[in-house]
Amino acid sequence: MIETDSRPSLLIGVIGTNTEVGKTWVTAQLLATLKLRGARVAARKPVQSYGPDEIDTDAARLAGASGEEVSDICPAHRWYPIALAPPMAAHALGRGPVWMSEIIKEIRWPAEVDIGFVETVGGVRSPLACDGDSLDLLNRLGVDRLLLVADAELGTINAVRLTLAAVGPTPTVVYLNRFDPDNRLHQLNRNWLIEQDKLTVITDVHSLAVAIEDVCEAA
């Protein structure tokens, strides 16, 4: 049964430096790993847009990992089968406007969740509603931590810095997706973010799961 006033013990917002950096893949892998390690997990993708021929949507992948119903991850009326930012997709499909307050009211959590994930859309400033973006959603939800998914390739340092400048003081872990330890550029990007920018940077899902468990236990 979904409660209307429950909140996970640890609420994590998932953001990306851009679209197509693998937020959903990372979140799904993390959900599956934490679940196997005994954590009670849940995920929410409050709104999703996707290509009309795409069958395996973000919400479906998250549901497969967490064991929840797809409609609990993302309400069916918030599915927009066109590859545009959700409020733009809604308009293109002739549907009503997407308002942030309505999206927030629709987020429901099961009782007694240890770790909950809210996955956003696109980059941190990508429009998520007519009156707000991904960062606005997470700020209004008051997430405890942020997981920033970035690519490990050329340009990632700039993308991470710009995203964190927008985010502000919320504690953030950077995950370099598709990291290849044998790729010198990937190594240099990771080392710069750790040594020069003093960031917490993780490059494998198991280590990320352990780090999140440590935060949950300390909460």
TrEMBL record:
<dbReference type="InterPro" id="IPR004472">
    <property type="entry name" value="DTB_synth_BioD"/>
</dbReference>
<dbReference type="GO" id="GO:0004141">
    <property type="term" value="F:dethiobiotin synthase activity"/>
</dbReference>
<dbReference type="Pfam" id="PF13500">
    <property type="entry name" value="AAA_26"/>
</dbReference>
<keyword id="KW-0093">Biotin biosynthesis</keyword>
<keyword id="KW-0436">Ligase</keyword>
<protein>
    <submittedName>
        <fullName>ATP-dependent dethiobiotin synthetase BioD</fullName>
        <ecNumber>6.3.3.3</ecNumber>
    </submittedName>
</protein>
<dbReference type="InterPro" id="IPR027417">
    <property type="entry name" value="P-loop_NTPase"/>
</dbReference>
